[in-house]
Amino acid sequence: MGLISNFVALLPVLLLLVSNSKAQSAAGVFDITKYGAKPNADITAALASAWKEACASTTPSKVLIPKGTYGLSQSNLKGPCKSSIELQLEGTVQASADVKGDGLLLLEYVDQLTVSGTGVVDGQGKTAWGKNDCHLKKICTKLPMNLKFNFVTNSIVKDITSLDSKNYHFNLLACKNLTFDHVTITAPGNSPNTDGIHVGDSEQINILNTNIATGDDCISVGSSNKQIVISDVTCGPGHGISIGSLGKYTNEKELVGVTVKKCKLTGTTNGVRIKTWPDSAVAFPASDMHFEDIEMVNVSNPVLIDQEYCPWNQCNRKVPSKIKISKVSFKNIRGTSATPVAVKLVCSQSNPCEGVEVADIDLTYSGSEGPIKSQCANVKPVISGKQNPPICAEPAPAGGPSSD
Q1: Could you confirm whether 169 is annotated as catalytic?
Q2: What Rg do the C-alpha atoms of the chain give, in angstroms?
Q3: Separation between Cα atoms, residue 214 and residue 27, nearest integer Å
Q4: Which of 47, 52, 65, 307 lies most in the core, judged by the most C-beta atoms within 10 Å?
């Protein structure tokens, strides 16, 4: 009887321990539906509440957006948080038709962030693309982006999909040690200014195993960046993988260390390129940029340095670019060109490119404007391996039109 009575006496304590154990196992998950979120309704307030509590947790936490379709207005999720935090997106969040605001989902000042899940961020861009006026003026209307990462460090974005952003799909500002892995980016080829991933003022950024189909640069690497790695990315439709444009704004600074490798581009309006504005607003170096093991399938302008980049003639072409390009390599680039000029290296007249290496280029062109050729200006590259077409066999004509 003593054992039985002791067990009975301890039973409430044991039940409390089991209950606490279950509570602790679920304590790290902050499901937005527990904060009032419902499918087919706006979840902005619920997401903000879930994030606030998760961010305040002293143990690793997760904000969960479960399967379903939800509306979302501009959502600012800010740190710093007290521990590592994950935003797990399994449903679809849809933007409204509103063209005001910076973006749909803004993540700022967060360390050790994971954004994951099989869900979709849908910018509903079709409602806004007609309002884009960047083809009319140099300083143009800024439409909302799908996801913005400002001052995010030691973090990873994986598996999610960005669909039909009104502007850039992902924009990075002042991030460090941030990786994108197995991300999908999708928008029509005629959607304006929908860069897949734009990187600015950041360091140690890795973009890996990612599929991008959009209406502007699949990836654009702006100024003031260091140690950017782009690998195993498929691109198309789109405007290619670009460094730049550089030199448009007075606050831009040195860019150093960009590697693009093992990528495939299909049907894009440009391949791999470096672009700077003539009559640039500032002078700084851009160096240590390398493109290697790239496959081109019916790509226009597959290999391009364009220091006369001037879309819609919004600049003074007669004033050479002040951006100094050096230590550049294009190696093992193969496939088919949609234009007869497959390799074009046009550098600044006042700041010629230095240390440019071109090796093992094997591109073919089957159009009616042939034969395939390469044009150069203000550069003397070191050439080795296969040359198809012969590199720098012709001078580049001055003042040619720039594609966006």
Answers
A1: no
A2: 25
A3: 39
A4: 307
